[in-house]
Amino acid sequence: MSFQVSAETAQSLNPMPETDQRSANFHPSIWGDHFLAYASELVETDENIEQQVWELKKKVRTTLIAVVEKPSQKLKLVDAIKRLGVSYHFENEIQEILQQLHNNITLHHLDDHENNDELYDVALLFRLLRQHGFYISCDKFAKFMDSKGKFKESLMDDARGMLSLYEAAHLRVHGEDILDEALVFTTTHLEAVASYLSPTLAAQVSHALKQPIRKGLPRLEARHYFSIYQQDASHNKVLLTFAKLDFNLLQKLHQKELSDITRLGGGKT
Length: 269
Hints:
By secondary structure, the protein is an all-alpha fold. It has twelve helices and no strands.
């Protein structure tokens, strides 16, 4: 004899165990509705500022590709562009400049064009090339060492050069004893002389000892570098103005993006 059991009867004979359904109780965003304001205000880029940025960008590019008497002049400009956070506008130009400098080193021509014995310039060249993936030997720093394999004591009077070497040393790889020694040497002596330097240089040294370029976040480092760069008597005014305007435009763009994310994430509309 066969029979069928209805769903209701089966459920009464074998009741399903009760489960405790937990409701989501996520913590509210730490930002609250802060970024929603940008959506309500319909943040838009000022066309006049965009035009100004475009004109300044052309001027910076013209300066960047111009022929210079000394390679160090071009290096310092490239470094400033990178540290001010606008190198993404000139990636091709910067790559070409560094490629040419690397070729000159390979062909042993760089020293023919310029007395390249200054620690600051050698360290800056080393850092920029390594940052962009070009090979350059740490033996370039051997000329600054004595017969005992230690950095010369005379370098202690060159705080700017030591700072440049300190930043370069952070791009060392395993087995580069010269750069290991350089990091110890520069760290020790920069800490010792920091309080005797000019306010601007002292600020750079203090910041670098806490946060070397290699370990910094580009946008935060750019914001910090604005005040440092503008105090340099030889700074490029066009570049500085361009970098500040570009920073502000990007900031508005990021604020708008955060506003959109906040709304999509369940914020107020």
